[in-house]
Amino acid sequence: MTTSMYTENVTSNLSAPIAEHDFSARNYGMMLTIYVLPVIVFSGLLCNAVSCLVFTSHELRKLSSSVYIFALLVSDSGVLLGLLFVWLEAIGYRLNHINGICQALVFFTYVFSFLSVWYVVCVTVENYITICQPTQFRVMCTRKRAVTVVSAILVLSLSLYAVTAFATEVAYIEPPGIWHCSQRDELMEVLQALTYIDSVVTLLIPLLAISGMLLPIALSILRSTRWRKRLSSLPMLDGGKLRTVGETRKQVTRKSPRVRVAKMLLALSVSYIVMNAPSHVSRLYYLIRQLESGNTILTYSEAFIQLSLQYVSYLHHAIKFWIFVIISKNFSKYLRQVLSDLVHLRCLPG
């Protein structure tokens, strides 16, 4: 199920006729959709665009990690554009139920959701090699290899979800007498199977893969920290000055671009787990429950909780700019250069 279709289903549970004591849940869901969602979408699109400019600057685009991050930012923006149509429908513009837009939106939302999560996996793999397998870094972490991996994942996603464009149609529903973007009845079983496949390849496997790599990364960082503490009191001669091994090593580490990039990549992976794991686990639970019991209806409380978790997940597509600003001094440096260049171009005559 695509991000936008999933949100629409959850939101509809909150906006259906409900008992008096459930009005707070419904109002909360509609408030998120109408007021919070556009803030996430528009701020995220702007920040992602600026981040893309930074990572395509002359110096940063040479790094293999920049290829993955740029691809991740583009896929995040694609997800946000899909959410834009959810918001437009909430305020009365049913553009996603127009023939052509309906099929394209479903297809590309599937594709961008897949790409977004798997490019985070790529970022985590790159960081795992950097920290846990440093001898393989020069061989495995090249820009050419990164472009190949990004392209291969793109082709895979386009192939995997191509059927969704043909399995979706705009049908007239009476009552209430409206055109609605829905699934074709004759391909319902195919789409149901794809829903479970999509849940495995975009929720379960990436979550396990990222978590599995973060554990040895954390252990490696812990061992390195302990080792530096043990060496911190040992004296050595550095440039004619008596320093401790720990002080000298800390200076070298701070200057290492690979270490600075590793911190940024680690922040991306950890933020993914923190902001997406609750929503993913919850969605997997409801899918398993649906598979076992056939119960597809969420209670108001369940929809309330799931929608809240889903919005935390949406936020992850929009905040990477701030992660870069907080974690990476290099990003902040090149951000100032990019903004200065943009101001300079704007001030040019003509």
TrEMBL record:
Alphabetized Pfam families for the sequence: 7tm_1 (PF00001)
Domain G-protein coupled receptors family 1 profile stretches: 47-324
Main location: membrane
Domain of life: Eukaryota
UniProtKB keywords: G-protein coupled receptor, Membrane, Receptor, Transducer, Transmembrane, Transmembrane helix
Species assigned in the record: Aplysia californica
Compartments where found: Membrane
Cross-referenced Gene3D superfamilies: Rhodopsin 7-helix transmembrane proteins
InterPro entries, per database record: GPCR_Rhodpsn (IPR000276), GPCR_Rhodpsn_7TM (IPR017452)
Membrane protein topology class: Multi-pass membrane protein
Claim: Zinc-finger is one of the keywords in the record: no
PROSITE patterns the UniProt entry points to: G_PROTEIN_RECEP_F1_2
The protein's name: Neuromedin-U receptor 2
Listed transmembrane segments: 32-55, 67-87, 107-125, 146-173, 193-222, 264-288
